[in-house]
Amino acid sequence: MKTTLISAALVAVLVVGVSLVNLTYGQGGGPGGAVQANGQNIAVIDIGVVFEQDNKFKGQMDQLKAEIDSTEKAFKAQAMEINRQVDELKGIKPDSPKFHELEASVAKQQSDFNVQKQLKNKDIMERQSKIYLRTYQEVEDSVKQISAKYNIALVIRYNSKPIDASDPQEILRGIQRPIVFVDKQFDMTTAVITNVNRSEVGRVPGPQSVR
Length: 211
What we know:
The chain has helices spanning 47-53, 55-89, 97-149, 168-175, 189-196, 207-210, and strands spanning 24-25, 35-37, 40-45, 152-157. It is α+β, with helices and mostly antiparallel strands. The chain has a single domain (24-210), classed as Skp domain (Protein Binding, DinI Protein, Chain A, 2-Layer Sandwich), CATH 3.30.910. It has a 4-stranded mixed beta sheet with strand order 1-2-3-4, with helices on one face. Strand 2 and strand 3 (40-45) form a beta hairpin. Helix 1 packs parallel to helix 5 and helix 3 crosses helix 5. It is elongated. 17% of the residues are buried.
């Protein structure tokens, strides 16, 4: 009997196509001399990297994974016991009272088992999605703080990781990335990571961190 809990990956892949015209480079007006459009700065962020290095998010996901592993073991033990009783049925005469009693018990256990698994899966998926949402909202708040401080009008999501040449599907996804190149001085990923992991409430990283 298969007992695997399915924990859906809930990080959405946001593909943004942006057309930028008449851009000029800032002369010290923004963090790292960021690109400016109509006097305001533009920056990029790798949300995936932020999630990977967000200590609170990693702790919550590790805790959830430990619970999933523990639940898996409990379900496996329960399934083994039900299967043992099913095997026991095979050695009992079908027309005997004991057979009917055990058959009814096994049927109820199997039904309860399936319901428990479905409810547990739903609970875990809902809690996981809330962890992702809370983390994203915290990242969003951090982006807003930094953007307000450095007059950043537009923050574009991009993927900073190199394409895995050994994975054909990854190659196809990679060549469809909307951003082909970006100067690292326009990348606020590190600044956001610092901000979400900061110990002093309300502290916003300085210009060096935005680069």
